Structure formats: C-alpha cells, structure tokens
Amino acid sequence: MISTADFKNGLTIEVDNAIWRIVEFQHVKPGKGGAFVRSKLKNLRTGAVQDKTFRAGAKMEQAPIEKSTMQYLYADGDSYVFMNTETYEQIEIPGDNIQNELKFLKENMEVQVTLFNSEVLGIELPNTVTLEVAETEPGIKGDTASGGSKPATLETGAIIQVPFFVKAGDKLIVNTVDSTYVSRA
C-alpha cells in the first residue's frame, strides 16, 4: 500500500480495478478544509487520461508493473510478434493495443514491453528512432533550411513535417514522443 505522500510521476497504481500511471500530480492545501491531491492519471489498458482527486493520506495499491526489453520480429495478421532478448520467448500483441506506436515500429527494433501479472499492457518505443524517407515532394531552389516545412512519408507509413531540404531516401532521426523531425542521421 502507498499513500498520496508517495506520489511521483510515472508511478503505477491500482484504483477501481484499473491500472493507472500518474502523469502529473499536485498537493493542495486550501485555507479551509482538508488537504487533497489533484492528479492526472493514464489508464494503461485503454490509454484514456482522467483527472482524479484524492484525500491527503489516502491509501491505494501500487500496481506491480514489469518492463522487459523485447525485439519486434514481424506482423502476423492483426497481431505483432515480439521476442524477449534474454529468454528468447515470443509473445503476440494485438494491433489494437499498440495502435499509436505502430507508425514508428520497424522490424528488429528493441522496445520496452509493459506487463502487469503477465498481461501485456503495451510497448514503449525509444525516444528517438532513425527512419528512411519513403516519399516527399522535391525541394525547390531557393528554399532555406530555416523556413517552412513539408510533409514526408516515412518507411513505416508515418507522415511527419520536415524541412524543405529533406528528400526521398534520406535517413532521419524522429522524436517518437511528439512525432517530430529532429535531424538527418
């Protein structure tokens, strides 16, 4: 059991038969009445984000989340097969569970798979990945490095905004957190 005094960003708790990750929290001590904790929680099963308020000192269960490094092998219909890099055990994850991560997922990429009592909750990609530009409009003479951007389709099918000087075949470093261009590789 943990209390609201133990809250920190990234901590996983079990509330109302759901697994939640604390995105942010704030201790509030009003002039009148008891203290409380305002928090923003993300449901690890559904991905929904919810604001929740707890009384100061309220107790709840900490969810025992395990993370293991796994390598993405291949897609099998609507499922995706990952292999544990230590035990070589393979698991299948339904595409619905990792919909947002699929746009940056490439074969043989290592990811963190999040497990709760052997139930797969999802995957965490590295913060940046290197991907090749599959298709983009050609740059026009006179375009500058600092002015404007254009859409580019990456090898995984993701579409991001890139500077005008990027052309098809370039390898780019992409931020997976906010789907933005970082630099050329």
DSSP E strands, number: 16
Q: Identify the strand order in the major beta sheet.
A: 1-6-2-3-4-5
* Low-confidence runs of at least 5 consecutive residues: none
Q: Output mean pLDDT.
A: 86
Structural class: mainly beta
- Choose one word for the global shape: flat
Distance between the termini: 46 Å
In sequence order, what are the helices and strands, one letter per element? EEEEEEEEEEEEEEEE
Our Rg estimate from Cα atoms comes to: 21 Å
Short synopsis of the structure:
The protein has strands at residues 2-3, 12-15, 18-28, 36-43, 49-55, 59-62, 65-76, 79-84, 90-94, 110-116, 119-124, 128-136, 150-154, 159-162, 171-175, 180-184. The chain is mainly beta and 185 residues long. Residues 129-184 form the Elongation factor P C-terminal domain.
Sequence-ordered SSE layout with sheet pairings:
Elements: E1 2-3, E2 12-15, E3 18-28, E4 36-43, E5 49-55, E6 59-62, E7 65-76, E8 79-84, E9 90-94, E10 110-116, E11 119-124, E12 128-136, E13 150-154, E14 159-162, E15 171-175, E16 180-184
Antiparallel strand pairs: 1-6, 2-3, 2-6, 3-4, 4-5, 7-8, 7-10, 8-9, 10-11, 12-13, 12-15, 13-14, 15-16
Describe the structure.
The chain is mainly beta. 0% of the residues lie in helices and 54% in strands. It has a 6-stranded antiparallel β-sheet with strand order 1-6-2-3-4-5, with no helix packed on it. A 5-stranded antiparallel β-sheet has the order 9-8-7-10-11, with no helix packed on it. Strand 8 and strand 9 form a beta hairpin. The radius of gyration is 21 Å and the shape is flat.
Key attributes of the depicted protein:
185 residues; mainly beta; six-stranded antiparallel beta sheet; five-stranded antiparallel beta sheet
